[in-house]
Amino acid sequence: MTPSSFSNRGNISSFLAMDVMREVNMLQQTGQDICHLEVGQPSTRAPQVVLEAAGHALDSELIGYTDALGLDELRQALSTYYFKTYKVNVSPERFVITTGSSAGFILAFLACLDAGQKVAVTSPGYPAYTNIIKSLDLSPVAIPLGQENDWSLSVAGLHDAEKLHGTIDALLMASPANPTGTMLTKQALTDLSLDCAQSGRWFFSDEIYHGLTYSQEAVSALQVGDHDGLIVMNSFSKYFSMTGWRIGWMIVPPKMVRPVERLQQNLFISAPTLSQYAACAALTTAAQDELQKHVELYQHNRDKLFTCLQNNGVTNIAPADGAFYLYADLHSLSPSLESETFCAQLLKEAKVAATPGMDFDKERGARFVRFSYARASDEIDRAVDRLNGFLARFQ
Ligand SMILES: Cc1ncc(COP(=O)(O)O)c(C=O)c1O
Predict the structure, then answer these.
(1) Integer distance in angstroms from the first to the last C-alpha of the chain?
(2) Are strands 368-372 and 325-329 parallel, antiparallel or unpaired?
């Protein structure tokens, strides 16, 4: 006899950007030249010193399991990095090395929350947040963001959501955010963190896009008030250009170290060892010099793409302070335009891939598109040329 059904936990939405990427990869295999504006990953390799460190580790290390919490030298290097970057003292013991921040979410939610508890996320927001929350039998509470609240989460927004949905047990947010790139002000971050501390609510601060900012540096939640309910999530995927190395970290309150260690031991044993050795090199000055050039490239790409959209009548774009995305409203082109149709046509006719907003916001996303500008500048140039041609039909 075969079992009759799969679990409800696995019955989550797909990650549309990943579905689009799969389709685009298939089209490319048939020889089509497509500009990848759909997925949030750098087209650059990891920094040279990282590649060398990985080569060296392969030659000289066993590449067995590490301690569940991660290599001591990486946790120490991260502690030093936080002092240099943010001027905060965090002991190496509080760092947990994870298999990308994706595994960090699983560990943190399992350590902090029981089935049925509520986690607030923004809408639009990173789609996997809601999907991971659901798959762990937790309840997502979406807080709507848009032009009306400057695309920024506030304590008032959080309290409004609580009035509607009841006590919220945890808040998960990112600044700079995906899909908007919008950053919270230092004051807003302080207020949210304080509100969580006072209400006994967990505060998960996803800082994965730190380093990728274009006007002011991002503030870590650790800088505005470290407390026993604060968990900082981060990753080597974006700024460090290491998506496929599957390596990230969390900073957890001292009392949470042991529960997370037990979970990691049992769920993942440890994060990928080769990547842990390589990641130590990503935190060195030599790597930073190389990575800073990527930031200049992204800023250049952002300005080109932004100008192209504006010139073609796409005028409502969320403030793109950081990350590598533009989240653009199509209604200024035509109020009846659906982004799924728009993206399908754009791919078919202009060979530019982008992600429909429904991935990020089930309520209002149908009129938005996310364009990623993380690719090389010649690819962005080609995409801009093609977009100019494609968007001309709406004038
Ligand atoms: C906001 C945000 N958080 C987390 C992740 C997951 O990153 P990773 O698991 O590669 O660290 C992503 C990936 O796009 C993201 O945009």
Answers:
(1) 60
(2) antiparallel
Q: Is 123 touching ligand 1 by the criterion CB < 6 Å?
A: no
Across 178-205, average pLDDT: 98
Tokens of 64: 């067995």
- Give pLDDT tens digits for 341-391: 999 999 999 999 999 999 899 999 999 999 999 999 999 999 999 999 999
Ligand 1 atom with least separation from CA of 103: 9
Find, among 137, 138, 171, the residue nearest to 154 by Cα.
171
Q: How far apart are CA 246 and CA 248, in angstroms?
A: 7
What number does CATH give the domain 48-286? 3.40.640.10
Instruction: Judge if the beta carbon of residue 100 lies within 6 A of ligand 1.
Output: yes
CA of 234 to the centre of ligand 1 (A): 8
**What is the Å distance from ligand 1's center to 208 Cα?**
7
Q: What separation in Å is there between the alpha carbon of 162 and the centre of ligand 1?
A: 26
Nearest to 66 by CA among 269, 341, 334, 339: 269
Contact by Cβ (8 Å): 262, 238:
no
- Say yes or no: domain 16-45+288-394 is CATH 3.40.50.300: no
Strands (E), the chain: 35-36, 95-98, 118-123, 139-144, 170-174, 202-206, 230-235, 248-251, 325-329, 352-353, 355-356, 368-372
The dihedral through the CA atoms of 293, 72, 40, 147 has a sign that is: negative
Residue 178 beta carbon below 6 angstroms from any ligand 1 atom: yes
User: Closest Cα to atom 14, ligand 1: which residue?
Assistant: 40
- The two most distant CA atoms of the chain are separated, in Å, by 61
